[in-house]
Amino acid sequence: MLRSYRSRMTASFIVATVAAFLALGFGWSTEGAVVVLVLVPISVSLGAWAGAAIRGEARILAGAAREVAQGELTTRLDPPGDEMGLAYDEFNRMAARLEGRVAEASQERNRLMAALNSSQDAIVAVDTENNVTFANAAVEGLLDRKPEEMIGNPFVFTMPDPAAIEGLRASRERGEATSHVIERPNRRFLRAIITPIVGGGAWSTLVVFHDLTDVKRVETVRRDFVANVSHELRTPLAAIKSVLETLEGGALEDRDVAVDFLARADAEVERLVQMVEELLELSRIESGEVPLTHDVLDPAAVVELAAGRMRAPAERAGLRIELSSGNGLPRVMGDRASLERAIVNLIENAIKFTPEGGRIDIRTRSDNGGVLIEVADTGVGIEPADLPRVFERFFKADRARRAGGTGLGLALVKHTAEAHGGRVEAESTLGEGSCFRMWLPGR
């Protein structure tokens, strides 16, 4: 069988040539005419056969190329044993190279998508019509939208903020990068950084949203702290100034009045000293500068020492302290002085808000692998609206303001517990009393 296209065409040419020579040799005799009539159709058939084979192989190549163009990159051809085998081999090499390059591009794209989706910032790309063309996974947490819900829709559907829309316009028309702080519902603040993308194809502008909520909250806390300190300092300073002015105005000549005013000034100075000391203590605890020791402590012994220090003030206020401790308490690792001071603050707080004739129960028991210290009183209780804020610095409910104090004691208790790996909580019933709990992990 003739397998080569060249062989087929050569055979056709030879047959045609033989026919021509025979025709000449026979001088176009009857025999020559018969020979020509037989050989010429054979030559034509051989040529047609070769052409049909070429067209068939070309269709196979075209079909394979179409499959590759449609994404079937693993398509390969089995080369025949003729000249078309070279074309088949080149096609197979081309398809293999294309598959490798597409695989590399896909791997790079997957790395880029993984990096973008790992970002804590929300990243959104938009086209020249301000339609979203890409959104990473973080948009769901920051913008409350799923990426698939955003892609293909106008950016304004997700972020209807005039500043952001103006930033997109500046990026598209003037190539400017802009930054905007946007307030979202529930007091969430986002910084939107909008930059143009050069050569990004369908990605015309990139918008990166960074969560500023915690930063804003810290700024608010710092501002409130300064305002609260100023307010708390103003009251005793104003009282001291008033005393001094009164004494200068002639009260100094009246010994009894002078002694009374000096006692008031001394009380205000003591309040200032206590406030400054507590502020410094809070600052050291929060900054981690307090050199807390890590001794093995018996929690019952620490509680008993704190209760012993407060029995005399309780008796002067007409209150009794009841102390109880569970058996087999685990030891705790901590700083004896700071823990004792925290418990004293809890007892002092209970004394301050419990009317004469009341009771303060101090209980210590094992709980969840640690120790739970409870200080319960039969006092005036706390308003439900105020209860979540009692551990804030300088927070004072109306009853607390009438009772005096710096508003820092419970904040110190909270920070001391957390510095030891513990936690605090409070519950209260208005008019019936309150219970403060401090949990510390066992050793």
What does this structure look like?
This protein has 443 residues and is α+β, with helices and mostly antiparallel strands. It has four domains: 100 residues, no CATH class; 93 residues, Beta-Lactamase (2-Layer Sandwich), CATH 3.30.450; 72 residues, Orthogonal Bundle (Helix Hairpins); 147 residues, Histidine kinase-like ATPase, C-terminal domain (Heat Shock Protein 90, 2-Layer Sandwich), CATH 3.30.565. The protein contains 13 helices and twelve strands. The strands form three sheets. Strands 2-1-5-4-3 form a five-stranded antiparallel beta sheet. It has a five-stranded mixed beta sheet with strand order 7-9-10-12-11, with helices on one face. It has a two-stranded antiparallel ribbon with strand order 6-8. Strand 1 and strand 2 form a beta hairpin. Helix 2 runs parallel beside helix 3. The longest helix is centred in the N-terminal third of the chain and has 40 residues.
